[in-house]
Amino acid sequence: MAGSVQRSRADWIDVVRGTAVILVILVHALQRTELFTGHEFAGLETLTIVVTPLRLPAMFLLSGLFVTRSLAKGIRLYAVGKLRRVAWPYLLWSILLIAFFWMLLQVTGIGFGWEVFWRIFYDPIEHLWFVAYLLLYFVIALLLRWIPAPYLLVGVMALSAVPIEGQWLRFWANASFFFAGVVLAEHRRTLERAVARFWPSVIMLVSAIALSIGHATLFLVLPEAPWNLPIVLMFVLGAAGVARPVASTAWLAAPRYVGVESIVFYIVHWPVVSFAAQFAAAKQADPWTTFAVALAAGLLVPWALAALARRWRPAEALFVWPSRR
User: Fold this and answer.
1) Which of 23, 68, 152, 196 is the most exposed place for a label (fewest CB within 10 A)?
2) Residue 4 has pLDDT above 50, yes or no
3) What is the pLDDT of residue 325?
4) Nearest Cα to Cα of residue 128 among 110, 143, 116
5) Predicted confidence band at 1 (pLDDT cuts at 50, 70, 90)?
6) pLDDT digits over 20-43, tens only?
7) Is the dihedral of CA 170, 30, 90, 139 positive or negative?
8) Ramachandran region of residue 218, left (φ > 0), alpha (ψ -120 to 50) or beta?
9) Cβ contacts of residue 149 below 8 Å, gap of 6+?
C-alpha cells in the first residue's frame, strides 16, 4: 500500500512538471516565431501572459519537493547528485549553446559568439538561467539545512523585496517558490491529503487559472512574484489533485514522460525551437506553419534524445556526468 501511494505521488509530480515544461516550450516556440516572422499572434499572446506567472514557478516549487529526501541520503550523496545532474549539464550545455549560436551567427548573422563565455559564471546564457538558479538553490538548501524551511522561505521572500538592480529580484523571487516546495516536502502527509481531494483541487486549479486570466486581460492586477505564491500554490496543488487519479494511466503518458525527462526537454528545446523557427521563416513558411514546425521540433527532438540517452551512455553523458558502473 505504501508503495502505491509513493508511486501515485511521484506520477502526479511528473505530470504537473511535464505540463509546465510543455507550456515553456509552447511559449518559446511562439516567441521565436514572432521574432523571425514579424507576425504577432494576438490570441496566443494572451495565453502566454496567462501561463507565464505559473509555469516556471511551478517547476521551481516541484524541484523543492525533493530537497528533504535528498538531504536525508547524506551530504556527500546530495552534493555529488547535484553536481552530476545539475551543475554538469549546465556547464556543458552553456558551452554547446555558445557554439550553436556562434555557428548560427556565421550563417545567418543572428546569434552571438565566444565573447559571452565568461557569462556562464555570472550571467547564464539564454534559457539556462533556470538551471543555474536551481543549482544555487540546492546549494543554499545544503548550506542552510540547519535553518527550518519556513524561516528560509520568509528570508528569501524578504530578500526579494530589497531594491537592488540586475537579477536580484528574479533570483530571490524564484527562490521563494523553490523553498515553498521544501516546506511542503516537510509536511508530506498534509500534502498528500490535499492532493487526494478531487473537487477542492478542481476549485483551486480553476481559481488560479481564472485569476491569471483576469490579470492577463487587465481585469485584475495581481501581485508580482514572489507575492503571487498563494496563486502558484493553488495552481500546483489543484493540478496535482486533478491529475492524481489518472496520473499513472496511458492518458497522461506524454506529460508524465516529459516530467521524468524534464531536464532534457528544458535544456534541448531552446536551440531546437530557435533553429526550426528561423529555418521555416527563411523558407517563407506562413507564421502558423512556422509556429507548428518550431513547436513540433521543440517537443520531438528532446523526446528522441531522452529516449536515446536511456539506451546509449554517450547520449546520457549530455545530461548526467557519467558514473562508474
Assistant:
1) 196
2) no
3) 58
4) 116
5) very low
6) 999 999 999 999 999 999 999 887
7) positive
8) left
9) 68, 179, 182, 183, 185, 186
The answer to whether the peptide bond before residue 226 is cis (omega within 30 degrees of 0) is yes
Nearest to 229 by CA among 150, 140, 138, 157: 157
Residue-wise pLDDT for 184-226, tens only, equals 999 988 998 999 999 999 999 999 999 999 998 888 888 999 9
The answer to whether residue 5 scores a pLDDT higher than 70 is no
HEC-encoded secondary structure of 245-290 = HHCCCHHHHHHHHHHHCHHHHHHHHHHHHHHHHHHHHHCCCCHHHH
Distance CA(213)–CA(38), nearest Å, equals 25
Buried b (16+ CB within 10 A) or exposed e, 215-239: bbeeeeeeeebbebbebbbbbbbbb
Q: What is the mean pLDDT of residues 169-179?
A: 97
The residues near 92 (Cβ < 8 Å, ≥ 6 apart) are: 318
Give whole-number Cα distances, 206 to 60, 139, 211, in Å: 21, 35, 8
Sign of CA dihedral 48, 52, 54, 57: positive
Give every CB contact of residue 278 below 8 A, 6+ residues apart in sequence. 32, 36, 104, 108, 110
> What's the pLDDT score for residue 69?
92
pLDDT digits (tens, 9 = 90+) for 273-322: 999 999 999 999 999 999 999 999 999 999 999 999 999 999 999 999 98
**Domain-wise residue ranges, the chain:** 2-316
